Amino acid sequence: MGDLYFEKIRGGLIVSCQALEDEPLHGGDTMAKMALAADQGGAIGIRANSVHDITSIKRTTRLPIIGIIKRDYDDSGVYITPTLREVRELMDAGVDVIALDATRSPRPHGETLEELVAYMKERGQRVMADISTMEEALYAESIGVDCISTTLSGYTPYSPQQKEPDFKLLQEAVRSIRIPVIGEGRINTPEQAAHCLKLGAHAVVVGSAITRPKLITERFAVAVREASDGEAR
Ligand SMILES: CC(=O)N[C@H](C=O)[C@@H](O)[C@H](O)[C@H](O)COP(=O)(O)O
């Protein structure tokens, strides 16, 4: 029998509920309320950052959780679940899947992706590899992760920098990889989310377009300003 988790999320929308310290919605039970709204709106899963948010989301909804801990270490650009310390914290909190940076960038303290994946798999923990290129996707699959997500395309210097989701990477990954491929990153409209599924994504993760009102407001504000400048001319 296949993994029930992947059956449950097949063809569904996962909502990323995150607000960092410098964001207006950070703190309290705000992300739990976001997760409840996502649940009521038809999401089939949540992606969340930090033990605090994960614990409060678990009190509010029973949706399965992809957990991460974003932590900056001085010597590294790797910030999504960078080291064993964050992996252990997430395993103690209990999440359905741990997502981690699976790019080529060196990790803090000389730790390696391979070691972290082996640690989790030995303990029966599902792992999602956040990748930015096909090479990283293939490597992550070869070391035994359970699924990959296109999360980091556009966030490494060697991946395409674009406003749109990386449909090309998604499509190539779906063609070449046997484990589930999740579409994630800059999916800003329902049409783009649907397109990811048409390309063969197992599920999609949408964050900012649903749970970051400051960014959503900025998009409207820019459009309105440009329209009113056009009128004035
Ligand atoms: C690059 C990075 O740090 N991505 C983070 C990963 O957890 C989140 O900040 C994103 O919100 C998430 O990936 C969903 O993407 P978007 O918000 O574009 O829908």
- Return the structural class: alpha/beta
Question: Compounds present?
Answer: N-acetylmannosamine-6-phosphate
Strand content: 15-25%
- How many strand elements? 8
Give helix % range: 40-55%
Separate helix tally: 10
Spatial arrangement of strands, main beta sheet: 1-2-3-4-5-6-7-8
What's the level 1 CATH class? Alpha Beta
> pLDDT under 50 segments (min length 5)?
none
Question: What would CATH call the architecture?
Answer: Alpha-Beta Barrel
Mean pLDDT across all amino acids: 97
Write up what this structure looks like.
This protein has 233 residues and is α/β, with parallel strands linked by helices. It has one domain (4-231): TIM Barrel (Alpha-Beta Barrel). The protein has helices at residues 4-9, 30-41, 51-60, 84-93, 113-122, 134-142, 167-176, 190-198, 208-211, 213-232; strands at residues 12-17, 45-49, 65-68, 97-101, 126-130, 147-149, 181-184, 203-206. α2 (30-41) crosses α3. The longest helix is centred in the last third of the chain and has 20 residues, at 213-232. The termini are far apart. N-acetylmannosamine-6-phosphate is lined by residues 16, 18, 68, 80, 151-152, 155, 184-187, 205-209. This is Putative N-acetylmannosamine-6-phosphate 2-epimerase. Pathway: Amino-sugar metabolism; N-acetylneuraminate degradation; D-fructose 6-phosphate from N-acetylneuraminate: step 3/5.
Question: Key terms for this structure?
Answer:
single chain; 233 residues; alpha/beta; TIM Barrel; 10 helices; 8 strands; 43% helix; globular; binds N-acetylmannosamine-6-phosphate
